[in-house]
Amino acid sequence: MAAPADLSPLDVLKLRARLLRSMRRFFEDRGFIEVEVPTIVPSPGLDFHLSAFEVNDPHGAHVGWLATSPEYQMKRLLSSGAERIFQLAKSYRADEKSVLHEREFTMLEWYRAHATSETVMRDTEELVEHLATSLAKGESPLLRTAKAPWPRCTVEHVVREHAGVELDTLTGNDEEFFRIWVDQVQPRLGSDGPVFVTDWPASMASLARLKPNGMADRFEAFLRGVELCNGFGELTDADEQRRRLLRDQAERRAAGKPVYPVDERFLQALEEGMPESGGNALGVDRLLMLLVGADSIQAVMPFPEDRL
Amino acid sequence: MADTSDIKKGFKMLIDGVPYAVVEHQFVKPGKGQAFIRTRIKNMMTGAVIDRTFRSGEKVEKADTEERTMQYLYPDGDSRVFMDTRSYEQLRLTNDQLAENIYYLMDGTECNIMLFEGRPIGVTPPTFVELLVTETEPGFKGDTSSNTTKPATLETGLQVNVPLFVNEGDRLKIDTRTGSYVERVKG
User: Fold this and answer.
1) pLDDT, tens digit, for every residue of B1-43?
2) Is the pLDDT of residue B187 over 70?
3) How does DSSP assign A81-150, residue by residue?
4) Higher model confidence: residue B187 or residue A150?
5) What is the pTM of this model?
6) Out of B27, B30, B32, whose CB is closest to A97?
7) Of A6, A69, A116, A257, which is most buried, counting CB atoms within 10 Å of its CB?
8) pLDDT digits (tens, 9 = 90+) for A66-117
9) Residue among A96, A101, A178 whose CB faces B34 most closely
10) pLDDT on residue B47
11) Contacts of A186 in chain B (CB under 8 A)
């Protein structure tokens, strides 16, 4: 395989094609079906720290937003009876630009009904091992370290280990948590190979359910300081989900951010009965970057925004 | 008031009354979390470089700094006097402020003077200056290839290591960024 610096646009296209084919084979072998949901959606997600592109028609009338992730519609598919689904979804986040962010990027998102976050963590480590093997033919630095199973640590553990801070002293101060996280914790995660970080503070549960210990049933995987994916044991309680979305809306309004609508059809799907499920969203561009040892996602994209 | 979206390389900001220049900056954001701008910034008074992380969107105060091209005139006690060649306005920097740059000042040398709130805080001399050798051991004729060097003192008092063929009275081109010998100048 060519060194990352030598990757031509054609090399990048071939690599991506192999990666996507290997991903599809992995999921199809496990009984998943590939789905496609729209990217123009009535609500792009209310996550406080995400910002969406608004879509207008040629007359200036509002049509919707570009999806920041395919989550709502994929969960509606779970409620309608699909049990194992995956998607390679173009997703859009308006304010994110760095060597690890493009405003348009590719997300691999999958869900399993009747499964837990642990099942999905196993999918994740097996997937990455499979891809490292099939893509790198023994040359990827990832291959040696990506073998399943990966260590699982809690947020409390890694914050104590890398920052010397007790997590409960940061309760109610998410900004301070994230400052410590980006400065002291995340850069040190996964230096010896991928690691899962589990049990996030309840205030960062997003669309995850809460565990009996009061923490969010949410995990992320890190490798060489790069956040690779974010997964949940999914919240299926429609009332709790509505409370969180209304709270997110109120926080957005108070901060002067755009207030996106609550997606009522998503909530209706939860009311009608979404099975207990696990799901994960994995950055395809970041994974390819790590697999080939590149130092930016732009190096493994044929047309990053700056070269359009 | 500026905010973090204004941060780019060379951006000057005020922190606790001290001007800092941005050396490096990077956008960092956990997928489900607050975005930050991680920076490496240089204290323009002392040259010290520190790391600082700003919340994305945080207000920052732009430092009132200005760079002006001025000509070096003459020493005056513990200071050196510079003049703006258009307005003829003069100002002085202390020898402490000039630090090692004092060795690159000759009559008429054009420098960039950094002003903070109208007061001079530092100087950037030309990248290359030519200075006369006032003291060195006699050279060896024909020795142009050896990597061996010897110390030399230049007309401003600057000490540099030079090749063995350099003699007193030679003009040398000096790189002011490193304080090192570049070449002997003909004539």
Assistant:
1) 899 999 999 999 999 999 999 999 999 999 899 999 999 999 9
2) no
3) T--EEEEEEEEE-TT--BTTB-SEEEEEEEEEET--HHHHHHHHHHHHHHHHHHHHTT--HHHHH-PSSP
4) A150
5) 0.84
6) B27
7) A69
8) 999 999 999 999 999 999 999 999 999 998 999 999 999 999 999 999 999 9
9) A178
10) 86
11) 30
CB contact under 8 A, A230 and B32: yes
The helix/strand count (H/E) of chain B reads as 1, 16
CB contact under 8 A, B33 and A174: yes
Q: Residue ranges of the domains in chain A? A: 9-149+230-307
> Among all chains, which residue has been given the structure tokens 């809690």?
A154
Whether residue A1 is predicted with pLDDT greater than 60 in this model: the reply is no
Q: Enter the tokens of residue A201.
A: 């503070």
- Unique residue bearing structure tokens 């790069």: A226
Q: A128, A176, A185: which is closest to A156 by C-alpha?
A: A185
Nearest CB neighbour to A179, from listed B26, B31, B53: B53
- Do A89 and A258 form a contact (C-beta atoms < 8 A)? no
Q: Where are the beta strands (DSSP E) in chain A?
A: 33-34, 40-41, 54-56, 62-66, 84-92, 104-113, 152-154, 195-200, 216-223, 226-233, 277-283
Looking at beta carbons, which residues of chain A come within 8 Å of B31?
220, 227, 230
SS3 B176: coil
Between chain A and chain B, how many beta carbons pairs sit less than 8 Å apart? 51
ipTM of the complex: 0.88
CATH class of A9-149+230-307: alpha beta
> Which residues in B have their CB inside 8 Å of a CB on A?
26-36, 38, 53, 55-56
- Specify the residue for token string 């980006």: A182
- What token pair was written down for A45? 């997600």
